[in-house]
Structure formats: structure tokens, C-alpha cells
Write a structure and sequence with these properties.
It is a single chain. The chain is mainly alpha-helical. It has a domain at about 415-470. Helices cover about 70% and strands about 0% of the residues. It is built from 20 helices and no strands. The longest helix has about 45 residues, at about 5-50. It is globular. It starts with a helix and ends in a 19-residue tail after the last helix. The relative contact order is 0.10.
């Protein structure tokens, strides 16, 4: 073979590689577009189902968090409490306060625009999640399944319905972006990707402390990816860099906000972590009341166990590795429950465990295809059981989401009591609440028979001593009533 013919063949191979890359990019762009549109339609469907919540007024921490801030107040959050009123849990979260200031200055008292903004943040979260899962090798069907299970779950309603938790959603966005740019940087090694990967955790830790677990999460993300045996040095560099960012923020937090809570490694903390992990597997929540909720939860658990056993029996080793890695990520992402367990703080572990479910469903279905499994009866039984399980999971999640929305009803006694603590300044320190918002709150509470601080204390006493009187009003909701589940319950 002559040198000329060898060069021409090399050029042809190079052209084929370029063409293949372009085809792959076009296909991936099409997948991303489908997922973004599907996420948007899913959120529109959720908004239509819960349209009545778009008029739900500011609640609890919203009263003094989401407002206009002075420059002195904003600057103080970079070297002190994120709450200038010093009422909330002590924390160094300047990014969260900047978001609250943006919401308060741009949307003001327009509650509908505030809630549209919350849905927009969720749309960004799902879009970034889709990008990450595509990079990890998940199919469009699996990612769509993750979207559906998450949006229909209790945790989605819990995070989306409380305006203050927009900061939590934004923190999750930056955590997922860190994982996404981490994957790209490890594979491609471009400096720009490394810079973006380091900027995102800086933003995340400035908003919420949940980002402290990123140094452990990143190696697990790489373990789940298809090329996990390669580029170990880059993975180590990324983990060390993100650890340094988290460590610096932790030290600054100890210096500027010494009152901030720290993890307590006790039996009680271990129980809280176990509850958070368990609740993350359950779309309808950990706590159940009544026969219907208990039956739905038990059916979901039985079908979930069956799916996992079937997957471990027929799944390929690569899929098992991804499944185990996703479960480990879920456990790590639930670690913040050791410090302060929150019913609304398990969105990321829920996404990790739901991703594991999607991996299991996709793998078992693949193994049951005709070239591998010839039995049509067995395949039909599997599809039927999985469909039933998904219907139960989605239905149970939506049912519990409606109970979450019930808590935000204006006549909910727990909501009225918690709103009253800000409206009538029952904290030790004065809460900065916009006048228009405070007057609107006073009018709503007056319509419920709460006119002053003494009425708030009386309501608290009545709820504690005679809850049955308020539970009977759940059906009509014309007077003060107690919801089936407290918003703060798992």
C-alpha cells in the first residue's frame, strides 16, 4: 500500500468519525429536547391539577424572608446569619438571601407570579436532571419514568408549595450541575469544564449546606457511569477540589455563625437518617393514616421488593453496578438529616432512589425481550405487575400531595397558628414583614377568628388538647380544621 493511499484512507476514517460524532450530537439534542418538553408538559399537568394552590398566600417563613432587602442587610449575610432578623436557624447562606431578595423585589406581593417562578425552578431542575441522566447512560423512557414518579410524589409538592424552599430547589440545581460538569470534565479534560464544575458547588454551598455531601457523591456518580474504570486521577482531583470548597465554607460558617447547628452522631440522628432514607423510597410518604393510604403504601413496597429481586436475578453486571451506585448516592444525599431532619429535605435522595427504580425497570424489561426470553406469558405478567406498581406509586404520591396542599388551605389551623407567629410578632426578635403583606395576613386571620397574639396562643392550646374538634371540620373546611397530615411530617 502506497503512502498516498494510506493518507486517503486515514482521511476517510477521520471523516467517518466526525460524521458519527455529529449523528450522536444530533440524536442527543433530540433526546434533550424531548425531555425538556415532557418535563414542561408534566409540570403543566401538575399545575392544572393543583391550580387552586396558585392563590395560596405567603406562609410562615415567607413573611419575612421573601421581601426587599437593604444593601446593608444583603452584605451582612456574607459574614453573618442569612436571616438579618436572626429568627431562623443560624446559617451562612448569602446565596439564599439573594434569591429571596430577587423574589421580593421582582414579584413582590403577586402570589401567582411567585408560584409560577417556583414551577420554573422545578422545570430547570428536571432539565438538568435529564442532562445528567443522559450522560450516565439512561434511556429516554427511564428518565421519563423518573420525572413522572418524582413530580407525582409527596416530596415534590412539599418543596414546590412553600415559597421559601425555592432556595432549596436552586441548591439542588447547582448540585446536579456540579455532577454534570464533573462527568464532562473527567471524560474530556477541558479546563473550562473544570472551572464550571468548581463554580457550581461554590454557588450551592452558599445557598444550602446539603451541598457538603458532594465530595462523596461525585465518585459515586462516576461509578454509575459507563467509563468508571478510567480517569481515576481526574475523579480524585474533582473530589478534592469540591471538598476544599465545602471545607472553606464550613470553616467560614464556624467563624461567622458559631451558633449554626452541627451534625450530632447519636442514636436519634441515626434513626432520623433511617427515616429519611425509607421515606425517599415511598412516593406517598413514610407516615400513613387510614386503611387506603396504608394499603397503597404496602402494595408499593411489595411490588418494589419484587422488582428489585427480579432485577438482581436477571440484570447484567453493569446494570447492577449502576443500581447499587444510585442507591448509595441516595443514602449519601440523605446524610443532612443527621443534623436537622426535614420532611422537605429528601428530594435529592428521592431522585437517586427513583433513578435506581428506573434502571431496574429498564433492565428487566430488556432481559424479557423475545431474543432473550421467549415466554410471552412471563413477559405479560411482568409488564402488568410493573404497570400496577407504577399506577399505585403515582396514585399514592398524588393522593399524599393533595394532603400537602390541604395544609396550605387558608382555614388550616396549623397554618393559621404558624402564620400568626409572624403576623403578631411572637418571636423574641422583631420580624421584618412588609406592611401590605402583614395587613393582608391580619385580614385572613381575622376571618378565621384570630385577632391578636392571645388568640394564637389559645388556638395552639386548643389544637394540642382537643384536636378531634378540629379534625371534624376537614370535610367542609369552612371553619378552622386540622389536616390529615402535618406538612412537617414525613
Amino acid at each position: 500500500m502506497t503512502k498516498h493511499s494510506s493518507d486517503r484512507r486515514a482521511l476517510l476514517l477521520t471523516g467517518d468519525d466526525t460524521c458519527a460524532r455529529r449523528v450522536t450530537q444530533v440524536r442527543k439534542f433530540g433526546q434533550i429536547s424531548k425531555l425538556i418538553w415532557f418535563a414542561g408538559l408534566l409540570l403543566l399537568g401538575w399545575s392544572a391539577l393543583f391550580a387552586y394552590t396558585y392563590r395560596s398566600p405567603f406562609h410562615w417563613d415567607d413573611y419575612h424572608f421573601i421581601r426587599h432587602y437593604s444593601w446593608d442587610e444583603l452584605s451582612s449575610t456574607f459574614h453573618g446569619w442569612n436571616d438579618p432578623d436572626k429568627i431562623e436557624t443560624p446559617a451562612l447562606r448569602p446565596g439564599a438571601t439573594l434569591l429571596f431578595a430577587f423574589q421580593g423585589s421582582i414579584f413582590g406581593e403577586n402570589i401567582v407570579l411567585q408560584r409560577i417562578f417556583m414551577i420554573f425552578l422545578m422545570w430547570i431542575l428536571l432539565a438538568v436532571l435529564g442532562l445528567l441522566l443522559l450522560e450516565l447512560g439512561c434511556g429516554v423512557f427511564q428518565i421519563g419514568l423518573v420525572f413522572v414518579l418524582f413530580v407525582s410524589s409527596r416530596i415534590f409538592a412539599s418543596v414546590n408549595l412553600w415559597l421559601t424552599l425555592g432556595s432549596l430547589t436552586l441548591c439542588y440545581v447547582f448540585i446536579l450541575l456540579t455532577c454534570y460538569f464533573f462527568l464532562l470534565w473527567v471524560r474530556e479534560g477541558r479546563m473550562l469544564l473544570l472551572i464550571l464544575m468548581l463554580i457550581c458547588p461554590m454557588a450551592a454551598v452558599s445557598i444550602r449546606e446539603e451541598a457538603y455531601v458532594l465530595p462523596i457523591v461525585l465518585p459515586l456518580v462516576w461509578f454509575v457511569s459507563s467509563a468508571w474504570r478510567k480517569h481515576g486521577r481526574r475523579v480524585l482531583v474533582a473530589a478534592v477540589g469540591v471538598f476544599a470548597i465545602a471545607a472553606v465554607h464550613f470553616l467560614l460558617r464556624r467563624v461567622f455563625v458559631p451558633e449554626a447547628p452541627s451534625p450530632q452522631f447519636t442514636i436519634r440522628a441515626a434513626k432520623a437518617l433511617l427515616v429519611a432514607i425509607t421515606a425517599s423510597w415511598l412516593p406517598g410518604g413514610y407516615k400513613t393514616e387510614g386503611i387506603t393510604d396504608s394499603v397503597l403504601a404496602n402494595i408499593w413496597i411489595v411490588l418494589l421488593i419484587g422488582l428489585v429481586l427480579g432485577f438482581m436475578r436477571v440484570g447484567r453486571s453493569s446494570s447492577r453496578r449502576q443500581f447499587i451506585g444510585a442507591c448509595c448516592m441516595g443514602c449519601v444525599l440523605a446524610l443532612p438529616a443527621i443534623a436537622v431532619p426535614r420532611s422537605f429535605g429528601i428530594a435529592l435522595p428521592t431522585l437517586a432512589f427513583i433513578t435506581a427504580i428506573g434502571i431496574a425497570v429498564g433492565e428487566v424489561y430488556h432481559q424479557l425481550q423475545p431474543p432473550i426470553m421467549a415466554s410471552k406469558t412471563f413477559r405479560f405478567c411482568f409488564v402488568t405487575c410493573v404497570t400496577l406498581g407504577l399506577v399505585v406509586g403515582i396514585g399514592g404520591g398524588i393522593r399524599r400531595s393533595m394532603y400537602v396542599a390541604e395544609y396550605f388551605h387558608e382555614n388550616c389551623a396549623l397554618r393559621v397558628e404558624r402564620d400568626g407567629t409572624f403576623i403578631f410578632n411572637l418571636y423574641k426578635r422583631h420580624a421584618t414583614v412588609p406592611d401590605e403583606r402583614k395587613e393582608a395576613g391580619r385580614a385572613r386571620l381575622a376571618a378565621a377568628g384570630i385577632y391578636n397574639a392571645d388568640d394564637v396562643w389559645s388556638l395552639h392550646k386548643d389544637i394540642t388538647e382537643c384536636p378531634g374538634d378540629y379534625r371534624r371540620g376537614r370535610e367542609s373546611r369552612e371553619a378552622l380544621f386540622l389536616p390529615k397530615y402535618d406538612y412537617l411530617s414525613f
